[in-house]
Write a structure and sequence with these properties.
This protein has 122 residues and is mostly helical. It contains 6 helices and no strands. It has a domain of 66 residues.
Length: 122
């Protein structure tokens, strides 16, 4: 009998991802669109999405048509390597960053609790 903790499988304990959906990068979408412009839809689906079948192929077909409409935007995004690696572009200001005055207000609020002896962390 071996000593120590037993491995969970052949991968040594790395579990498979439970994510059901995967979002492709802008560069991958651009590659698909450029291939589709030169070739046909069938060959594009065979090359990039050979693992899909049935209704999944139909869904991917509509998303390829949508990406083709966004071809100009994808070309602009893929000019920058850092943007080409991203999966989603959000407008400026839609992140979860607090304004400076709100951060100062929260810091004062937390410090007020700390002066009362209440343990607070943020």
């Amino acid at each position: 009998m071996t000593r120590g903790r037993q491995k969970l499988g052949e991968t040594g304990g790395i579990r498979a991802s439970k994510n059901k959906r995967s979002v492709s990068t802008h560069q991958f979408r651009l590659d698909v669109v450029l291939f589709f412009i030169v070739k046909s839809m069938g060959s594009t689906l065979d090359k990039f999405f050979s693992y899909l079948y049935g209704s999944q192929l139909q869904t991917k077909r509509t998303s390829i048509y949508l990406c083709r409409k966004q071809n100009d935007m994808l070309l602009q995004l893929c000019n920058s390597l850092s943007l080409a690696k991203l999966r989603k572009i959000r407008a400026v200001g839609t992140g979860s960053i607090l304004p400076a005055d709100a951060a100062v207000h929260i810091a004062k609020w937390v410090n007020a609790y700390r002066t009362q002896g209440i343990p607070v962390s943020f």
